[in-house]
Amino acid sequence: MAEEVMLIGAKGSPFTRRVETALKMKGVQYEFMEEDVSNKSPLLLKYNPVHKKIPVLLHNGKPICESLVIIEYIDETWKGTPILPEDPYERAKARFWAKFMDDKCLQPLWKSCSSQGEEQEKAKEEACELLKILDNELKDKKFFGGDTIGLADIAANFISHWFLIIQEVTGVEVSTKDKYPKLYEWIDEFVNCSIIKENLHPKEELVAVFRGRLQAATATK
Amino acid sequence: MAEEVMLIGAKGSPFTRRVETALKMKGVQYEFMEEDVSNKSPLLLKYNPVHKKIPVLLHNGKPICESLVIIEYIDETWKGTPILPEDPYERAKARFWAKFMDDKCLQPLWKSCSSQGEEQEKAKEEACELLKILDNELKDKKFFGGDTIGLADIAANFISHWFLIIQEVTGVEVSTKDKYPKLYEWIDEFVNCSIIKENLHPKEELVAVFRGRLQAATATK
């Protein structure tokens, strides 16, 4: 039976891009279904009834949800470039940092640019502390995964691309090369990996997406 | 070299108990270091400088943090009863539900009992929806892991023990056997597994802990 791999996602979403990166690292061919997140499709609701969120990977009709869970599934299912290392302690570290990106960094980084007044000041302070932690983690390494990109690098993709663009769109300066030199070295290495570089989302499209989101956030205040 | 396994935790914490359950499933001997979470030890701050939280597993001096990450490490490091299944799709499902417990259930379940007024009503409503999802997931299964307990069951330990006690202490009724029959069957099966039963935290101690936390929450309002 021919293998069927389908990805329900949105090209502008860092979570979708994480999964695409993992599929491309494994050389897996897949069909991409662009989801309109403002008008969710019956397909998405059927395959991710719990969260109703992208991305969803369908492998021979079986759905897998949550980007980090999907990446581990891909790593365990297909040969090719490994995404997690073999050693259990190194695997634990990769999972720890990937979880850190989602649980700790995402919200404060977004808020540091999108909120206002006191809330923004607090988010900026928090974001700076988090970026310092990441900068420090990278002090002796090229990637979070060591010499090659791994789970934590893929999970940090929103820092290397999306977060820089949000800062540009909003004019808010949170991260700079001077403050986080190792993190900026990592950004440079990461976005220049061929697999990442060839699949970066066009900046002008993301600029449009963020302008829309920021306007929506302001309108609901 | 003799193996050194040390767990920094608090006996009353469901997260610590998760790790203890995993260690016991593998038959790993370990030293337990009770942490005073209101006055964190230099040891905790040294080994979990990022989150400064329990539990931390020290294996031959190397720290592993975050309970779900620790459980996967334990599963990959020691033989004995498997915690995650072998099949990648089943592993993905276990990880999905374990993550669901932490990301979605913990806060609303706690708030449904500990908050007041409108906030409480909203949390209760949300908690009921989440419990319904869990009840439905268990419809054809004995455990979240299938026939035997696995990662998601261990992650759901706060529902089987802590959440029932919180409801008793506060007098708030969120979950009942009538509303969630499959979930209550699961609770019964889970707490009666020998490894869980022999290590349940004494109810009277948890009652005292929750009374303290609820008073503290009220005092800061």
TrEMBL record, chains A, B:
It holds the Pfam family GST_N. The keyword Transferase applies. Residues 3-82 form the GST N-terminal domain. This is Probable glutathione S-transferase. The keyword Transferase applies. It is an enzyme of class 2 (transferase). It catalyses: RX + glutathione = an S-substituted glutathione + a halide anion + H(+). Residues 87-210 form the GST C-terminal domain. SUPFAM superfamilies: GST C-terminal domain-like (SSF47616), Thioredoxin-like (SSF52833). Belongs to the GST superfamily. HSP26 family. It comes from the Eukaryota. Its EC number is 2.5.1.18. One of its GO terms (molecular function) is glutathione transferase activity. Keywords: Transferase.
